[in-house]
Design a protein that fits this description.
Layout: H1 7-26, H2 32-39, H3 43-64, H4 68-71, H5 73-93, H6 97-125, H7 130-159, H8 166-183, H9 209-231, H10 233-240, H11 246-267, H12 272-296, H13 299-325, H14 333-361, H15 364-392, E1 406-408, E2 414-416
């Protein structure tokens, strides 16, 4: 590899960067019970290990949310991958729980820097049919990353030596390879604006804020699945469903990601609004099965809970990204995507801490039921918000709008005019 990648090649490398964000996020999922046993940790501590990650992601998005619009997608993703590599390395060698917290901080920095740029770059490298192709690829890449984290983690924890380390060593090697490939990404997306970058909150221009609100609530709701599946899932399977085989539990949890990927491929046939509504309904059904699994202590309820929830996640995220991508100008796409992820990660971080505290003070069953009930309420809100947006106006892709139909802003950017 002595020359820059072509756009089709770059598209798949960026998909790999997207996949790494979910793999890195879920990497410790199957080892949380081992940490709890090894170091006598409460659910509050184990969920805090999870929660510090999205909280750091939020902090990075607040400060560096639109940096890729200035220094380029490639450079920003490389910084992100380097930080993720360091975080995973710390998990691979962690001698104590304090090291895990530091590792999660670096993982959060890595994902915070690379999540928005990689999503934006997929859109820019996608070519014809870019909006739907990029959104669907984002979902499938997330599914691959998520399922790999759970299945690889489950197999290595159950059957391999070094159960708390080997899965992170595998991920570390893959991230180094991904970093090398990312080094050869084209530089043609750098310096898209004429201004100097400075730290600031990600900006969303007034003309697209109603769409942004609907899309961000949809993605935030979908990411709530991550708290239940990633933060609490392995402990729910062990303590409430009472399944003692780590690989079986990892497979049950991985069904979330597998169905997520399958639904992501199907989602391209749906409009953004229809996808969000169908995804929200699927998530509600998934939470009903989860409640049944807790009450009945049954793996037969837990398996459809994770599988159906995966469908809900995929359709809701796909719909949210499709709605947002369709109205976001290329010059500000990195910042807008970062702003969307900011809200999603902030909510999941706070929710993880809250549910962990409930699990410690009361019990895991109560925490799970509260999480499921909150998920149902959020899905109902999402359906209402997206339906209202759809009734107000049809989403018009900015790519088909002539330049005079856009309102120039003082900072030299363009957004869709409110009267369009």
């Amino acid at each position: 590899m002595h020359k820059r990648l072509t756009n089709p090649q770059a598209f798949w490398v960026c998909a790999g960067v997207v996949a790494h964000t979910l793999w890195t996020s879920a990497a410790p999922a199957m080892t949380y019970p081992l940490y709890a046993q090894q170091w006598n940790l409460t659910p509050t501590i184990t969920t805090a290990i999870f929660a510090v990650y999205p909280i750091v992601v939020v902090a990075i998005l607040v400060i560096f949310g639109d940096v890729s619009d200035f220094i380029g997608r490639r450079a920003t993703m490389l910084f992100g991958l380097a930080s993720s590599i360091l975080g995973v390395l710390l998990f691979a060698v962690a001698p104590n729980v304090e090291t895990l917290f530091v590792g999660r901080i670096f993982m959060g920095i890595g994902v915070g820097l690379s999540a928005g740029p990689s999503t934006a770059a997929l859109q820019e490298y996608a070519g014809q049919g870019g909006v739907t192709r990029a959104s669907a690829t984002t979902i499938v890449a997330q599914a691959i990353g998520f399922s790999s984290a759970l299945l690889v983690g489950g197999v290595l924890v159950q059957y391999a030596p070094l159960p708390t380390r080997l899965s992170f060593i595998v991920l570390l090697v893959l991230l180094v390879v991904l970093f090398i490939f990312s080094w050869f990404l084209p530089r043609n997306l750098e310096r898209q604006t004429g201004r100097r970058w400075r730290p600031r909150m990600p900006q969303v221009e007034a003309g697209i804020r109603p769409t942004f609100l609907a899309a961000s609530i949809a993605v935030m709701t979908a990411y709530t699945h991550g708290v239940i599946i990633t933060s609490l899932g392995a402990q729910i399977a062990k303590e409430l469903v009472r399944s003692s085989n780590v690989f079986v539990n990892s497979f049950a949890l991985a069904l979330f990601a597998i169905s997520l990927g399958a639904a992501g491929l199907f989602a391209r046939r749906l409009s953004g609004t229809v996808a969000v509504i169908c995804g929200s309904l699927a998530s509600i059904v998934g939470m009903i099965f989860l409640a049944g699994a807790v009450v009945q202590h049954s793996l037969l309820f837990f398996i459809p809970a994770t599988a159906i929830s995966g469908v809900g996640y995929a359709l809701t995220v796909y719909g949210g990204l499709t709605i947002m991508n369709a109205v976001t100008p290329e010059a500000v796409r990195g910042g807008v995507m970062s702003a969307l992820y900011l809200l999603a990660y902030l909510f999941t971080g706070l929710l993880a801490v809250a549910l962990g505290k409930v699990a410690t003070v009361i019990n895991m069953a109560t925490a799970t039921m509260i999480g499921a009930g909150l998920m149902v309420a959020l899905c109902i809100i999402v359906i209402g918000v997206v339906s209202r947006l759809n009734n107000r106006s049809a989403v018009i892709p900015t790519s088909v709008l002539p330049l005079p139909s856009s309102r120039p802003l003082q900072n030299g950017r363009y957004c869709v005019s409110p009267d369009v």
